[in-house]
Amino acid sequence: MNLEGMRRYENDDIVDAVVIGTGAGGAPLLARLATAGAHVVALEAGRNWTPEEFPSDELAASGIYWLGERLSAGETPNAFGANNSGTGVGGSTLHWGAFCPRPDAHQFRLRSEFGVGVDWPFAYDELVPYLQRVEAFIGVSGPESYPWDVARRYPLPPVARNAPAQLLKRACDALGVRATDAPVAVASQNFAQDGAEERPACINCGACHQGCRIGAKASMDVTYLPLAVRAGAEIRPECVAYEFTYDASGEIVAVIYRDAAGLERRQRCRAVFLCAGAIETPRLLLHLGIANSSGQIGRNYMAHVATQVWGTFADETRPNKGYPSSLITEDFLRPADADFVGGYVAQSLGMVPVTWGQQVARARGLWGRPLVDYLQTYNHAAGIGINGDCLPQDGNYVELADETDAHGMRKARIHFTAGTNEVRMKRHAERLMTALWTEAGASDIWSANRYAHTIGTCRMGIDPAHAVVDGTGRSFDVPNLWVCDNSVFPSALAANPALTIMALGLRTAETFLREARA
Ligand SMILES: Cc1cc2nc3c(=O)[nH]c(=O)nc-3n(C[C@H](O)[C@H](O)[C@H](O)COP(=O)(O)OP(=O)(O)OC[C@H]3O[C@@H](n4cnc5c(N)ncnc54)[C@H](O)[C@@H]3O)c2cc1C
Ligand code: SF4
Q1: What is the pLDDT of residues 37-56, one digit of tens each?
Q2: What is the pLDDT confidence band of residue 79, given thresholds at 50, 70 and 90?
Q3: Per-residue pLDDT tens for 93-136?
Q4: Residue 204 CA: which ligand 2 atom is closest?
Q5: What is d(CA 475, CA 170) in angstroms, rounded to the nearest whole number?
């Protein structure tokens, strides 16, 4: 993004806040603070990009993946890297899929409704106005009438349905499953953003996960971050925060970071917003040994059940063409025949070829000639995928390993074992998706067992004995430390997470502003 002419602060200026991380949590928060007149500096570990630099090529796009080594443990260890976290000015939203359903109200009350997991510390209704504001600002495209919430309106008409979406729609209609155009944070027509530059309409190139070259996809570098910079925020790319200094009362007075030249810097500040994502946020806090009187930092790591089912069709599908996930069904958020709690949303899937090839190799165990032969069917493939709730569990957590990174900081080790609930949900979804693809006429149907997104690890709650931050994101232990990213989720929710994180970003910023003015 264009950072020329941006306001600059000196390290000795005492800014109102330092925001660490510019992804789905940090960016809206930074913009909200800056537009309210606060003096804010964002530190971002990754580099700054202009959209034209995004390569539309899977191998060349690795610069936007968080590739710092993470160690995976547990019986269903998660794959990191390209799979589920990004870096750069804009964070993981540079290569997110922009699939943007709202969370389901019931899933904020898992403990009350099902007796498992935990409730969120505030009601879903409180989040709705923030969700609406995010959708209006970033330009979410969606159907005129949303079957599961008929009062809902999206600011833009739906994006075009690609071949997998058309096949899935016909199968859903035949089996009595309600399905509609998915809510996606992609401009289906030229979109004039309030306070930021106009974004062009999607050209259906299908390279969303490699960074959108034209800015049709709502990554933070073309939405909230330009707004923040216009309002006077400073963004410092390639700056890694690794320590704080404190006053006698234990409040943070400066953030110590390594700048792009490798030099140690110290930015003085009145408050810190840690928005580094659900792995780096607990890693940093565990490394510093702060804000953990509850012992909850790193605990309750969650990953969505993200099973996919693929099939081969007689007609060409060209799965790399078009926005990849243009159809949704929310009929399975609480299936009547479920032997699990919670539920899932399902979406049609196109996919770019290398990612698909890797999936095939892993899921089907193919290698060498048989793999090469099967990949010849690529232009006839179509997929369906789910995003399903995951329960918080004691055995799933992030800890510091003994191994250190190039700067001497201990690496994160992430333990994840899918529980009975996740396994039952996966089986239910596999049956459904297989039935849909059978109905659609697919042959050679197969399933990939996957888990996606990094969630939990610094959960919000009411009780300081069981949560790291309160219901607004403020640390119970360090009064001027706030956390706002995927880590604060007490439960995973079935919806893909970024819309909720952005809404939390606005909500946390406004709480801070209210308190600062009081
Ligand atoms: C391939 C992919 C596809 C996805 N698709 C979807 C989707 O379709 N829909 C959806 O809702 N979600 C999707 N997601 C998930 C979504 O992008 C994330 O949930 C969301 O971006 C997380 O927001 P965050 O603020 O927690 O972290 P991030 O967006 O990851 O931002 C954290 C930022 O902090 C920076 N950082 C970390 N440590 C430091 C440090 N010490 N100092 C300075 N900076 C630091 C990182 O570089 C990063 O830029 C996808 C993610 C990926 C990777
Ligand atoms: S499909 Fe549309 S949103 Fe995705 S990268 Fe291409 S132009 Fe951007």
Answers
A1: 999 999 999 999 988 899 88
A2: confident
A3: 999 999 999 999 999 999 999 999 999 999 999 999 999 999 99
A4: 1
A5: 49
Q: Determine the Cα angle at 488 with ends 22 and 299, to 5°.
A: 120
Nearest partner of 160 among 86, 216, 199, 78, judged by Cα: 216
Q: Confirm or reject: Cβ of 209 under 6 Å from ligand 2.
A: no
Cβ atoms of 344 and 425 closer than 8 Å = yes
Short-list 392, 372, 206, CA closest to 296 = 392
> Is the confidence at residue 82, as pLDDT, over 90?
no
How many angstroms separate the alpha carbon of residue 222 from the centre of ligand 2? Answer: 13
- 38: Cβ contacts below 8 Å, ≥ 6 apart: 16, 17, 513, 516
Neighbours of 454 (CB within 10 A): 31
* Pocket residues: Cβ below 6 A from ligand 1: 20-26, 43-46, 84-88, 91-93, 95-99, 209, 240-241, 275-278, 280, 284, 453, 485-486, 496-499, 501
Ligand lying closest to the C-alpha of residue 160: 2
Which of 494, 164, 501 has its CA nearest to residue 356? 164
**Token code pair at residue 289:** 């040994």
Q: What is the pLDDT of residue 60?
A: 87
| E strands present in 323-396 | 327-329, 344-349, 381-388
Residue with the smallest CA separation from ligand 1 atom 14 is: 96
Contact 141/156 with Cβ under 8 angstroms? yes
Judge whether 158 and 141 are in contact, CB under 8 Å: yes
CA of 143 to the centre of ligand 1 (A): 26
Nearest to 201 by CA among 185, 188, 182, 184: 188
Of all ligands present, the nearest one to the C-alpha of 209 is: 1
Which of 203, 318, 326 maximizes ligand 2 atoms within 8 Å of its Cβ, making it the mutation to test the pocket?
203
Q: Which ligand is nearest to the CA of 306?
A: 1
Residue with CA nearest ligand 1 atom 50: 96
Spatial separation of the C-alpha atoms in residues 184 and 202, rounded to whole Å: 11
% of the chain exceeding 70 in pLDDT: 100
Q: For the whole model, what pTM was predicted?
A: 0.97
**CA 211–ligand 2 middle distance (angstroms):** 8
AA identity, residue 144 = E
Q: What is the pLDDT of residues 170-228, one digit of tens each?
A: 999 999 999 999 999 999 999 998 888 899 999 999 999 999 999 999 999 999 999 99
Dist. CA 102 → ligand 2 center (Å): 21
Q: What is the mean pLDDT of residues 163-170?
A: 98
CB atoms within 10 A of CB 94: 29
The verdict on the CB of residue 469 being under 6 Å from ligand 2 is: no
CA pair distance 259, 269, nearest whole angstrom: 17
Q: Report CA(304)–ligand 1 centroid distance (Å).
A: 15
Distance 56 CA to ligand 2 centre (A): 9
Residues in the chain: 518
